[in-house]
Amino acid sequence: MSFLRKILGMGPKVDCHELLRNGAVLIDVRTPAEFNAGHVKGSTNIPLDKISTKIDKIKQLKKPIVLCCQSGMRSAQATSILRGKGFEDVHNGGGWHKFK
Questions:
Q1: Most CB atoms closer than 10 Å: which of 4, 15, 41, 91?
Q2: Looking at residue 31, what DSSP letter applies?
């Protein structure tokens, strides 16, 4: 895995669309205002600044997790946070518009 992919929380290349087709959960880490202005149907909004307080809720999902935001930077941070909390099947999906 490249150094850049690792520091951006991207991990090995994974087909996030395939994960979602197979039941993964899409979490949008943008602000509520950004989310309300447009989001992927079925996605859940947990803003980046709240992700650490929602660990138990996210663990209860018991499914692979794909994180998205506007550009991929906040979702990379959220991916790193969740991996630091012991999540293994969590992936930075990048910009939310890719999943519309």
A1: 91
A2: -
**Nearest-angstrom CA–CA distance, 13 and 1:** 9
pTM for the predicted model, two decimal places: 0.87
Consecutive 10-residue runs of the chain (100 residues): their mean pLDDT? Answer: 52 85 97 98 97 96 97 96 96 94
CA dihedral in degrees (2, 73, 9, 67; nearest 10)? -130
Burial (CB count <10 Å: 0-12, 13-18, 19+), residue 44:
middle
64 and 91 in contact (C-beta within 8 Å)?
yes
Name the residue with tokens 């979602």.
Answer: 20
Amino acid at 9: G
Domains of the chain: 3-99 (3.40.250.10)
